[in-house]
Design a protein that fits this description.
Length: 325
């Protein structure tokens, strides 16, 4: 029953937030237009200084977690496209998402961006902004297209406050600061609701994050998944490795004897297929986590630096502590 109550709480509060944003949208848009006439917003973002003389009107979001931030801020009417969905869209945001054209399964081309007359690109990962994928931020600036790269997604050991900084920047760019603060307040309430239900932990669970790989394995080190695991009382067995991600040997993973394996769900290989590999691999099958079949499936969209922090914490807590949560 407790699990059902918590899950319902997260879902309903997200719906209430979205409804509140919609209810204030007309008034806020008028205020935004008035502000845009008199104020230039200057943002320094990952080494690029850009001036926004008015709120963007034709934005494109390039990765799922930043798409969901845009939608949670009620900005779908300012979007001419979105791209690169890793998983199902966050359910409370589905209706808003359906109003935005999907330009590409992965990144759109530079020609697609130009054809829809985009004035702003919002990237979640560094890969969004290079010559291979769309264009560099400098080239976009020459095309009079402003951009923003999610800082919390490229930081080492990002915190929730880093995500909030990104939300505040986007809210400032679009002149909807009140919505940004309302979203942050709601996220804090949801997170506190999950943390308050956690059992007392005397000895952290040893956790291994399995992203992919069969010869060697790709795992989380000091990225946001490490932050999430720590928040619910776990300990990432590869948290001592520098960087956000690392490729490690299966033997090293076995030596660290993880008690739980978090399987990241995205892409063409399903979580179930990944678990089957872990159970049949001669080395990894010898870990306590596999022998006890203690797996937690975490969608990449939940584990990224976006609006789903409480959802991710709930998934991990339920998976770590089973009937105790």
């Amino acid at each position: 029953m407790k699990k059902q109550i918590i899950g319902t709480f997260v879902f309903i509060t997200a719906l209430l937030l979205l409804s509140a944003c919609k209810g204030e949208e007309a008034k806020t848009d008028v205020q935004a237009e008035q502000t845009a006439e008199t104020e230039t917003v200057v943002i320094e973002n990952e080494g690029v200084v850009l001036e926004y003389e008015e709120a963007p009107k034709r934005a494109i979001s390039l990765n799922q977690h930043v798409t969901e931030i845009m939608l949670a801020l009620g900005l779908e009417n300012r979007m001419v496209g979105t791209a690169y969905l890793d998983h199902d869209i966050y359910e409370p945001l589905q209706e808003a998402y359906d109003k935005v054209p999907v330009l590409a399964e992965q990144y759109p081309t530079k020609e697609q961006v130009i054809s829809v007359e985009a004035d702003f690109l919002y990237g979640g990962w560094e890969s969004a902004f290079n010559e291979k994928n769309i264009a560099s931020r400098e080239e976009l600036k020459e095309l009079e297209i402003n951009s923003y790269l999610q800082s919390s997604s490229i930081k080492i050991a990002p915190t929730i406050e880093d995500i909030y900084s990104d939300i505040r920047n986007i809210a400032k760019i679009f002149r909807v600061e009140d919505r940004g603060e309302a979203l942050i307040d709601q996220m804090n309430q949801e997170i506190d609701g999950i943390i308050s239900q956690l059992p007392e932990v005397t000895e952290p669970l040893d956790v291994f994050v399995y992203d992919s790989g069969e010869t060697d394995v790709f795992t989380a080190t000091q990225n946001f998944m490490n932050t999430l695991i720590t928040m619910v009382g776990g300990e990432n067995v590869f948290a001592d490795v520098e960087g956000k991600w690392a490729t490690v040997s299966k033997e090293d993973a076995v030596e660290r004897q993880p008690e739980v394996i978090v399987v990241i769900d995205y892409g063409s290989t399903t979580a179930e297929q990944k678990i089957e590999f872990l159970k049949t691999d001669p080395a990894l099958s010898q870990t306590p986590a596999v022998q006890n079949e203690h797996f937690v499936i975490l969608p990449l969209s939940s584990a990224s630096e976006g609006v789903r922090v409480a959802e991710a914490l709930e998934i991990l807590a339920k998976g770590f502590y089973l009937d105790a949560f």
